[in-house]
């Protein structure tokens, strides 16, 4: 019996998936293991395999097979076909010359950005960033035409399939309205609390690592299918059955590595929980960046910065670093106060939970206006600073601390920023639904028992892979469409003294 | 101007080379970093990329281009064309079904071998090993027909391009004649020496590693283009500009890791010394297994087990492990006695320098007879044991310590064994030529100055890559064809008390 078009497609996409797994390991190795002298050679290998994947994806036979392939509606097979078509449309809609021009513009701009950021010199970056923006707009237009989407939605769809500006705008408008008040309220509440008291270091790296592994394992990370290592910029990477997270240690402060490990473990648990029978195929992959970020933020923000979690780890921390229970900085009260401290600042990646969305709102508003063409790029610094002033009440002193701080725009990642806050919103919604569904989930945390939580996530999120849209997964898991209700309640409870955690 | 056939070929082979670099990192990661649960997924990725390389190599256009491509005789370009043709002939001469049948037979036999070796049960392995042998003979015949070679030479050519049985037979016949007498003489000489006195451990792994890195660096290993890590079976792997060696540590004995690091550093220096302008292309690769092994054995056997080297590292060892100079086991005399100890035994990989070739001679004679069909496979154990009896005077008590000890035959690596001893012979010849060429080379060793030695190797061996045949490189470097003269002199001097080192 001849193979069906569907079977031909799955064989072809599985082959692409196996090369992507190779790329995952090569990318991880580049950031964690590779000696500096191998950078050029590695870039060549990665480029060769990336071009190969792109060529396989845009092979003319793929379009023919997609036209002929069939699968019963509502099945995983149908979702698999849908994802194959989506991947093909994204790749095949862009002429090779535009792919190359975009990639070259971004590479050049990214290099120049490192200097421009250091010098706070936006004018120096403007021509190259303008080039990136123009190529990105072209890309957005041709992809949008192929996908039947507005240009910005086509960019967004690369990172967060199915999410549209029309979904984001009302959510972010609501946040923009409420956030300044919420932050003010949080700061007022914080003023009534005792001052933050940090335990005194140094905190040996070996102890931080051992504790990190203990917490990873408690959260459900499978060490036989992943690793923990060190890199300059923490990330979760690797390949299927091989989720590799990284962190960096500071022996003067154990919290960044600790919370970083929890955050990346959230990402890795998602990857480790994808359904084995669909691995290597498009439908078996994680759904998108919002959902991915929801899993890391659920673990870091919803769980690890909650009081029950701090109650569990406070004694482990004292044991790890040989501190006395009576040492005031090591009490669960003091640690909880530290991990929920509110401190508006200029740098997004250093922001606390409640001021973080302000950074995202500013970037989202600016990048949509830049793609629409309603904001001239030369006006970006003023507009950026105005946004920070409006939302955080801070005067940005220079572009290094302002619009030059992130690599996203110079590197061509437009449409990415909103997924951070969408993820934070979904994290709260998932946490609430999980707690409502099974009382053992909340009860387990203070004992370090996360098995009930993981079981719920496995069934309702991880195991769904890309079978449904993000909104579809959220609705099936929580019984409601994506909403900021749980997120806003969570922020008020934690930061405004209105609730138990 | 259209690209020439030669340029088309170099582009195509460079692309293959970049995928091979990716495979090098994936293979290293598999043995050093990969969590156990990723084994299947990784095997899939490696198989996909290997098939891809094979498909690219056997692409019908390659044959056409090779027919049309031209390069002036005697140039690197001509050698590059020659190597491209060789790679293409090896790959394209074998029908895909035979590649697959051989690979499957070897995979099955390798798995069964692990059990059969443990149980010393040759009869249990016989049917599967017979299958591997039959497939290997078929492969040898079809490759031989394409390459114009006898079957065994075609196998040998896979590992050691250009080396023929007619080159090996007289060399090995000479060794077979002299070796038993030489070993007896060495044992008699050893009986006149004081007993071996091993320093008492434990030897902390951190100290062993620090010292290993120090010695690697002294030998000329470029840490910006390579790594040192730990694996169960030490090896040198990685990719271009990224030579990665591994070792394993035993805190009861520092010598295996120390000598292992030196050995693998020899391999890595060869890789790091290949000419940058030909990297990724066939002519820019290392020449073959004999020459590769000559570089590791030159460093380990010719240099690191010599008296001047021991004089240099004895104080470093005492410093590393906090030993007193007066401690008798730590004197240079005692250490030299230890690293040159002769102990005939059953296991090839544990053999000392002078008994090692006996293990190789036995295997070479048996594998040529098996490929020729003059030895029935069922008679292998008796023939193996007879060989060990003849050359080492030992009675092999079971097949675990006899013909089942090595993975080579079960895994399909026939024609590989002789390269170990060919490498040892060339190592001695290179060392002698280097010492003769520049007095600073020998003088530097006792001071830990290996720069003059490395400079000679860079010019005469590493930098030649695959521009000439192995014999051509040896002749150009040493002024003489490959010969056992230096090797036999070296063994007599070191082990029979006839010389200075």
UniProtKB/TrEMBL annotation, chains A, B:
One Gene Ontology term of the molecular function aspect: metallocarboxypeptidase activity
Principal EC category: hydrolase
Keywords: Carboxypeptidase, Hydrolase, Metal-binding, Metalloprotease, Protease, Zinc
Essential cofactor(s): Zn(2+)
Pfam families given in the database record: Peptidase_M32 (PF02074)
Keyword ATP-binding belongs to the record: no
Record: active site: 264 (proton donor/acceptor)
EC number of this enzyme: 3.4.17.19
GO biological-process terms attached to the record: proteolysis
Keyword Zinc listed: yes
SUPFAM superfamilies documented for this protein: Metalloproteases ('zincins'), catalytic domain
Catalytic activity entry: Release of a C-terminal amino acid with broad specificity, except for -Pro
Entry binding sites for Zn(2+): 263, 267, 293
Cofactor comment: Binds 1 zinc ion per subunit.
Function statement: Broad specificity carboxypetidase that releases amino acids sequentially from the C-terminus, including neutral, aromatic, polar and basic residues.
Membership in a protein family: Belongs to the peptidase M32 family.
Protein name: Metal-dependent carboxypeptidase
UniProt organism field: Gluconacetobacter sacchari
């Amino acid at each position: 019996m001849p193979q069906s078009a569907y079977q031909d497609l799955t064989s072809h996409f599985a082959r692409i998936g196996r090369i992507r797994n190779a790329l995952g390991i090569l990318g991880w190795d580049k950031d964690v293991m590779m000696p500096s002298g191998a950078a050029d050679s590695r870039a060549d290998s990665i480029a060769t395999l990336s071009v190969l994947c792109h060529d396989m994806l845009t092979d003319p036979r793929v379009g023919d097979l997609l036209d002929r392939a069939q699968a019963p509606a509502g099945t995983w097979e149908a979702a698999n076909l849908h994802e194959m078509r989506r991947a093909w449309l994204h790749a095949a809609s862009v002429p090779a010359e535009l792919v190359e021009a975009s990639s070259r513009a971004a590479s050049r701009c990214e290099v120049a950005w490192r200097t421009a950021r250091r010098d706070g010199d936006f004018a120096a970056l403007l021509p190259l960033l303008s080039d990136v923006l123009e190529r990105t707009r072209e890309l957005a237009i041709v992809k949008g035409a192929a996908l039947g989407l507005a240009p910005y939605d086509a960019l967004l769809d690369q990172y967060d399939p199915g999410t549209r500006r029309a979904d984001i705008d009302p959510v972010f408008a609501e946040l923009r309205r409420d956030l300044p008040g919420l932050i003010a309220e949080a700061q007022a509440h914080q003023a009534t609390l005792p001052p933050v008291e940090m335990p005194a270091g140094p905190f040996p790296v070996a102890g931080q690592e051992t504790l990190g592994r203990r917490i990873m394992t408690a959260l459900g990370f499978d060490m036989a299918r992943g690793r923990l290592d060190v890199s300059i910029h923490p990330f979760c990477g690797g390949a299927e059955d091989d989720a590799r997270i990284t962190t960096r240690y500071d022996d003067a402060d154990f919290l960044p590595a600790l919370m970083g490990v929890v955050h990346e473990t959230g990402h890795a648990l998602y990857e480790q929980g994808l359904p084995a029978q669909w691995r290597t195929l498009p439908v078996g992959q994680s759904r998108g960046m919002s959902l991915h970020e929801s899993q890391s933020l659920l673990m870091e923000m919803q769980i690890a910065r909650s009081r029950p979690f701090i109650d569990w780890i406070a004694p482990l921390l004292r044991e790890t670093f040989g501190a006395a229970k009576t040492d005031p900085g090591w009490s669960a009260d003091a640690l909880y106060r530290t991990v929920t401290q509110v401190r508006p600042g200029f740098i997004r990646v250093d922001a606390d939970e409640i001021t973080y969305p302000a950074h995202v709102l500013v970037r989202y508003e600016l990048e949509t206006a830049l793609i629409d063409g309603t904001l001239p790029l030369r006006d970006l610094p003023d507009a950026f600073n105005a946004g920070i002033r409006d939302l955080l009440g801070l005067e940005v002193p220079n572009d290094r601390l302002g619009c030059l701080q992130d690599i996203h725009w110079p590197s061509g990642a437009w449409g990415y920023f909103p997924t951070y806050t969408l993820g934070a919103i979904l994290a709260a919604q998932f946490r609430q639904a999980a707690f409502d569904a099974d009382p053992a989930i909340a009860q387990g945390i203070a004992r370090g028992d996360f098995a009930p939580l993981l079981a719920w996530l496995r069934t309702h999120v991880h195991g769904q892979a890309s079978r449904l849209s993000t909104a579809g997964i959220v609705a099936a898991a929580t019984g409601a469409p994506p909403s900021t209700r749980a997120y806003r309640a969570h922020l008020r409870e934690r930061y405004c003294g209105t609730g138990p955690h």
